[in-house]
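Comment thread on ticket #2218

A.B. wrote:
> Attaching the input chain for the structure job we discussed in standup.
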Amino acid sequence: MTQSRIRYLLPVLLACFLASCAAQKKSSGKSTQGNEEVVREAQKYLGRPYQYGGTGNRGFDCSGLVCTVYKKVGVDLPRTASEQMKVGRQVSVREARPGDLAFFKPSKSSRKVTHVGIVSRVESPDKIWFIHASTSRGVIESSMTEGYWKNLLLQLRRIR
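C.D. wrote:
> Ran it. Output below, let me know if you need it in another format.
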């Protein structure tokens, strides 16, 4: 190959490579929108009271809320948080998107799951919100990356 051909082909190949990267970035951005149907369903229960073992009219506990919401969108999940944590695939905080499940432990040193909620908004990896059934306030939306929940996140899982 002559030097003039190389000089001509190099910018063309570089442009193709950059266009390919841009296309990949654009498609991955689309997937971060997540499962809005799950979030819309979870939002319907905001303000409902907490009830241990609850899955409906009288109130919810955390795993009961998750089980009910996913059932309404056609996905059957196990009833307990520890069993729900075995479903789907684990994702990182950087991959978080609405509809993912967030599992929490009771203390920094624990590895046992005691709480679960549904990711509702992802503003950035440092600003993630979730809907859950709080024992003191019922079904609410909280930040999982600030305040009380920040150091208690055990893992995120993508169900669908």
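A.B. wrote:
> Thanks. Noting for the ticket: The chain has four helices and eight strands.
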